Amino acid sequence: MAHTGTVNTDSRRNLAEYHAEVRDWLVSIYGNEVIPQYEISERTIEILLDLKRRNEEREAEARILISDHQEKTEEYHAEAERLSGILQMVGMSAANLSQSGNVSLRSLAQSALTLGIKDASTCSFYQALTDVATDSLDVEEERMRDKKTIARLFSRTKQALMKVQSLKRTLATVQEEAATIPHELDKKMRQAAFCQGKSKQYSKQVHQLEAELEKSGVDSTIYHQNLVRLAEDLEELQKRIAPLKSKLDSYHSLPPNIPLARVKIEEAKRELANLEAEIEKKIDFTHL
């Protein structure tokens, strides 16, 4: 327990020290202005310390850049004074240049500053323009890649939106169907309960009627299942009688005795022979 108390005391002391450090840094930033309120907690102090560290790193970098720019400014001034002295020696000072010459000189200086070259020599300009052209090609390639990426992402986004709309419609349909399910289920449950009640009622009535029929001594052959079985037997017999009946009907067209039947057969043969002869004549006629 004593060890834990020591740890907590150290933690509170570190937090107080960090808070004092953060407070001094905020005072140095805001000066006489009111410092915004903030929560005093380990997480908040940790974030503010990180901001303090980053701010100090950026300030150090800015001081380095400022120092470098000051040095370059001094160098440029010295170079400008040297060049101005040379131009004055040869009688070509800026005061002796025409208006168009001054404009060209300023344009040349502005171009050199824009391109970031160390001097205004032709080689420096060529090198800077080459770098600009290379950077321009790189930017164009990057732009084309970004364009393709954007087109691909747009296509995917469009497909995703279509799927979302489809899912929304499906969800709405499912919700509508789900809203009707309880009503339909309740209706079917009531119908099932009604049918079960009627089934029990009818079964009870059937047993009662069968008991009454047995008491009255009714013949069991008139029961429904027996009548159905008899109807099936009758239908089977009718199917078996049908071909016999057809065969019997064919015999009804014959005469009642054998001599007359023979006469009828002979007449049929003669008629058949006449028909065959007539067919042969027609066939011979078609060949002619």
Short descriptors:
288 residues, mainly alpha, 6 helices
Explain this structure.
The chain is mostly helical. The protein has helices at residues 2-30, 42-89, 99-115, 122-216, 224-252, 258-287. α1 runs parallel beside α2 (42-89). The longest helix has 95 residues, at 122-216. The termini are far apart. Residues 1-9 have low confidence and may be disordered.
Care to count the β-strands?
0
Main beta sheet, described?
A: none
Form type: elongated
Beta-strand content estimate: under 5%
Which parts are unreliable, with pLDDT below 50 for 5 consecutive residues or more?
1-9
Protein topology:
Layout: H1 2-30, H2 42-89, H3 99-115, H4 122-216, H5 224-252, H6 258-287
What's this model, at a glance?
With 288 residues, the protein is mainly α. The chain is 86% helix and 0% strand.
